[in-house]
Sequence to fold (327 residues):
Amino acid sequence: MDYQKNLQSIERTSDSSEVYTKLYVTKLEAEEMSNGYVTIADTTANPLRDEFILNFDYLDSTGALNDYQRQFIGLYKTGIADANRKLIPLLEAEEEGVADLVELKAKASFYEHEETAAQEEYKYYKDLYDNFNKLGPVIKDKDNSYSAIFVEETKDSNCYYASLGLYGINSESIKLYPDSNYVENKILNNADNTKIVYSVPDTLKFEEVDNNLYIQLNEYGYPKRLYCHKGSIFNVGTAYLGLEYTPENEYETIYQYFENKILAAVKDKAEYENIVAAKVEELKKLEESVQALLKLKDDLNSKLERILGPALREGYWTPDEYEDHAS
Fold:
């Protein structure tokens, strides 16, 4: 350092205009973080666990702080750190609870929809049942013929099927005739080659010629399709069927099925509505605890401002990347 000759005195001027005692560090967006941000509040290296850092060393070294101010700064740091440590698990629980609530409400809504849909189906089939002339089984034979066409299941399948469009068919009554003459001694199926199934095997491509007639039942236990191998005796193009069917029997089975679905949906909806109500109450209590801690922090911040006055100098800093400043 160079001095002028004959210098009578030296003065040092202190400029603290650029000194910040409370520096806020802006959080940055980060896809890899669960909350979408990276912030200094998440690191244990920041004892306050907040989005700012405090440093009063310069003012303390120059004697700008009195004992009461220094004492309160210590109490403030302890209070803010304690509040934030308590807030972290509460906010995490609240975030998780909100996500759970959305899912629970969706399930309650699902069962409400199930109830509505089941009620519509119930009414439809109950009306059919109530308004049907219940005269017992209807016979399909040469005098009251019924036919179904065997078609290919898929282009690369060797399995053919024929849809049955009647309600309440007695599966044991089905007889398959080769033509419309309905000659009894020419019936193609019998007890040995007729198989009743709920689902057709996944292997619709039969490895060998299968001379069985498969009667597929719907979920209510009534025939809905006939299946056969395209090389079997049953692949006659148009199938002429003799059978008995009683529509009111299937109508009754179906409406009773949907009646049970309504009862189950009402029960499940009520269960989830109760769970939703409990979760709402849980979130309400969590939010009350969160707000109490946030108020405590606000009170501490307000008191810090009053006690420190101009010694509390706030600044803001936004890093490009936190990695650039990691130690």
